[in-house]
């Protein structure tokens, strides 16, 4: 009986997730280009060849590093903004709070493509509002300034959009966590003579730990594999591929350069990295259950 | 919390409203641009309002560029994913909560791990898989909407099952015993008692599944190669970007059309979504 109920979902998951995962590893061990994809040439087993090629390619290390830095920037931004606004939300009136949450939910709900296009429009070189306002306030350098030309400016620009649509999750979960802490706990700490700082550090933070952990790990997982924003906002990875992250890199190697084997190897590296984070998450979660 | 003195409360309120305005501004700007006439959009002096709102942008993208068709394609994919994912995840959640069997714990851990798999990395093998599927059943192959339904359905299942587990578990077992005593068969209990009782959970999970399928850009871009009539909205919007100058009116009208269904869903179910999410994470 339980088997019968599990079959539809189970079959689909095995076919669409399990098998492709296995295939991903397989593909990464072969020379698999246009000729092999169209069946014109036999498969050539490379073993670790694709991985060795990656590890000895300085471009791969650059992209790996900038993926991590970009993700770190997005995670940090989302956490600071999300937690900051959650704390603020506990100290304000009902209507401002409702406005704040409505705005955040709007940003959260915006599809990645739509969010990317509207940010591109706001920061457009010639018709964008931001450049107009900057020029108007005396910054003549802003006239015709391209936000996607310089590598670091472009990364910052995309990160701002990513933070805009991913901080609301942090805000909502942290706010739920904060309001879940009974007021008596804080009052008791104050009666015992604890300072605000001491209360925050020794009472609030430990109680919020599980919530903050979830928000952090979710953000890391999301921001590490940003694809749409980079692809749309920097037009496929920026000038000469300067804004590539692992995800977009794998895609471009496979579908633009027809290096399906190498692209798969990048995919395996990315999966492995995320798996390490996942295991850390599971461990940390178990740890938090023990302490509570 | 401590009562806050009046001036500080006012200041905090003002800061919060200012943040709300800044956060909501891109959305306002998008909708505004969608209603602006062409000459105002191309002016180098953009104004935060318009004196001559027009539906031209929408009319153009819907009739001339056939965005309506892509909108329908997006709806078909997302709708099919929602309905199928609902039934599949409900059945699996019932099996995983109401039955004790060997390997159950392993399955649960696998579900958790499956949620963490970066599905983007699977684009390459799935591309080849869909190519093979297409040679047997063209509707589910490359260039067809069926391929998108299959992958998004699969990707939505782990989280949907995980979330529904909590809702199914919350239904007391006494209810099942009572139903059995009254002579109801197991499947009758599952569909006529359990299914309606977990409706709130079903709403939350189906919204998540809808949003995933609706927002997808990567798989639509990879699978729908040459059959432009089977394109979904995200890809269709990008057509208006061109080196000769971007058609911002069309892009913003398309983006607005794409955002509205999701926005409505989110506002309708945000409370359930949040409780569903936190319920899913807590277990």
Q: What is the level-2 CATH architecture name of the largest domain in chain B?
A: Orthogonal Bundle
Number of helices of chain A: 13
Helix content of chain A: over 70%
CATH class of the largest domain in chain B reads Mainly Alpha
Question: What's the total count of β strands of chain B?
Answer: 0
Mean pLDDT of chain A: 88
Q: Tally the helices of chain B.
A: 13
Computed over alpha carbons, the radius of gyration of chain B is 24 Å
The CATH topology of chain A: MetI-like fold
Give the helices and strands of chain A as they follow along the chain.
Answer: HEHEHHHHHHHHHHH
Looking at the structure, the CATH topology of the largest domain in chain B is: MetI-like fold
Subcellular location (chain A): Cell membrane
Main location (chain A): membrane
Family (chain A): Belongs to the binding-protein-dependent transport system permease family.
Keywords (chain A): Cell membrane, Membrane, Transmembrane, Transmembrane helix, Transport
Q: What is the gist of this entry?
A:
Chain B: Residues 71-269 form the ABC transmembrane type-1 domain. Chain A is mainly alpha-helical and 292 residues long.
